[in-house]
Amino acid sequence: MIPAPYLLYLGHSTDFAGIKTSRGLAAFRPDDCVGEFRHDDCPLTLGLPRLTIAEGAARGARTLVLGIANSGGTLGSDLVEDAAAALEAGMNVAAGLHQRLRDVPRLAELAKAKGLQLFDVRDAPANMVVGNGNPRAGHRLLTVGTDCSVGKMYTTLALTEGLRARGIVADFRATGQTGILIAGSGVPIDAVVADFISGGIEMITPARSDDGWDLIEGQGSLFHPSFAGVSTGLLHGAQPEAIVMCHDPLREHMRGIPGRKLPGLKECLDANLQVARLTSPNVRAVGICLNTSQMDPAEARDLCARTADELGLPTTDPIAFGTDAILDELLCTAPSARSTTASR
Amino acid sequence: MIPAPYLLYLGHSTDFAGIKTSRGLAAFRPDDCVGEFRHDDCPLTLGLPRLTIAEGAARGARTLVLGIANSGGTLGSDLVEDAAAALEAGMNVAAGLHQRLRDVPRLAELAKAKGLQLFDVRDAPANMVVGNGNPRAGHRLLTVGTDCSVGKMYTTLALTEGLRARGIVADFRATGQTGILIAGSGVPIDAVVADFISGGIEMITPARSDDGWDLIEGQGSLFHPSFAGVSTGLLHGAQPEAIVMCHDPLREHMRGIPGRKLPGLKECLDANLQVARLTSPNVRAVGICLNTSQMDPAEARDLCARTADELGLPTTDPIAFGTDAILDELLCTAPSARSTTASR
């Protein structure tokens, strides 16, 4: 576990896409974020107090989170400089970049000398095993998508919060670097060796018998030719009782592949259910989540209503309109939940 | 490329499953194998001359191939001793074990001192990129299976030889350690990072315009809950014009998972075609290959005939009965091959 509270790093970033990990932490772990660190040329803010490294340490920050993405995922000299300053001030450092913190001798030596930790959240865990698909106890929901980056993590987190608000035990299970920093644990499923995709998911969602839910962050899409293998292993390892499908209605082509159309919603839903049935024969779709952040609210509501009609499933933007309709569907229709729903 | 000819290592092995890599080389690269090396307690033979390390070197062997599997995939002291002797005698050493040759200091130092190479064929290549699924020129066939270890590699090699025997340019594209040693190159697709499954296959089967065929060794099964992610990425990366499905009629449950039934042949074929269509909309199934090595020949022929009737596809045991029926189907019905078939 990565020690909280955090100081969130924005550095010299100039666009919101580049700070998505820091942004995710500010959105979903606000109580654990003491402030943001940015240089004078960074025009962005997460709405948190702007602090220097020393001020962050003085306010109790235990970890500087390098929650940014840069071209190539490398640790430039400015990042190393700022990470070293955090270590000098007594903070741990966490990052999800391709280049590992521990591979920078200066940081490795400094952390050792100070008795602090470097967290490379893209590291796959050691001692992984292959999945087996054997039935296991517990309620599990997986988010799937028509494409990459259509809101699966936000949806999963929103559903987790929604269940908790109803007094139901619910745990977010992270599979990507931002999610892992938000949850404090997880498996970076795109970074494990191919044989261990489903096994990695089985590992982070073991059998549970407390009537609580594991809400598992999906990755990729069965219809993305780069990443469908990951999505397939995720479906099999998750053994989900329920799936929620996420979609970006304004996406013009599959991410990174100009000219390749997105699948139809019905086609995508059917394919996900079919693949999921290998390890979860009674899997059910319980809702559709649309990312309507760039749409007019009235249009967005209208699109949700039309989509719900077409697919016969509750459809919402989980951030704009909440998750209640999906949670109602989940708790009433998930077969193994039905017996306990009446008492809730 | 791993320098041939080879001296094949059997060591202290006592069962045929344990020497499958050496066996594959003896079967498919006989002209490149000068002999076999085994200790006195090894009751097995590949029918090659039994040679000491020194005799192997004297007969021109350039590489000792540790073509064995042992529990845990580790390099025991006996293996290290024999590998060191080969290096001392001037041979390179190749292995596909989990533990890497280069991680044994004695072997690494000896190889360096002698100017020889250590080949760890389970290493994924550096600088991998994600797949894109964009259409590319060339004829490609992929073998798929109802399960792991049902004869996909043998089938792929037999089809390659069959095409060559008809005067057609054909290249075997290896995706597993035995296949890579047989081919001399390839990508160990179960060992690449999950994001690069389809990209790894695109890399080893680039566009070709010589009217020749790439025959791609399949892995796993869409119906194996441990490895379906790998099989999915392989289908997308291969972008196959044709698939051949392999099956072991005597297999009682999915490999390694007691109690899990194999899929039906029709169900498995349909699922593979559906997944393949994402990057190869006109993909066709051109045959079924049954491993009948443990069956009575008359029963085997009868089963092939019944399976052919049921599925409407040529069905054979490629080792026992050859591949002609499948090659006829491939060369007559593959849409982009049709125009050139008449002249063959």
UniProtKB/TrEMBL annotation, chains A, B:
<dbReference type="InterPro" id="IPR035402">
    <property type="entry name" value="DgcN-like_N"/>
</dbReference>
<dbReference type="Pfam" id="PF07755">
    <property type="entry name" value="DUF1611"/>
</dbReference>
<feature type="domain" description="D-glutamate N-acetyltransferase-like C-terminal">
    <location>
        <begin position="131"/>
        <end position="327"/>
    </location>
</feature>
<dbReference type="InterPro" id="IPR027417">
    <property type="entry name" value="P-loop_NTPase"/>
</dbReference>
<protein>
    <submittedName>
        <fullName>N-acetyltransferase DgcN</fullName>
    </submittedName>
</protein>
<feature type="domain" description="D-glutamate N-acetyltransferase-like N-terminal">
    <location>
        <begin position="46"/>
        <end position="123"/>
    </location>
</feature>
<dbReference type="Pfam" id="PF17396">
    <property type="entry name" value="DUF1611_N"/>
</dbReference>
<dbReference type="InterPro" id="IPR035086">
    <property type="entry name" value="DgcN-like_C"/>
</dbReference>
<dbReference type="InterPro" id="IPR011669">
    <property type="entry name" value="DgcN-like"/>
</dbReference>
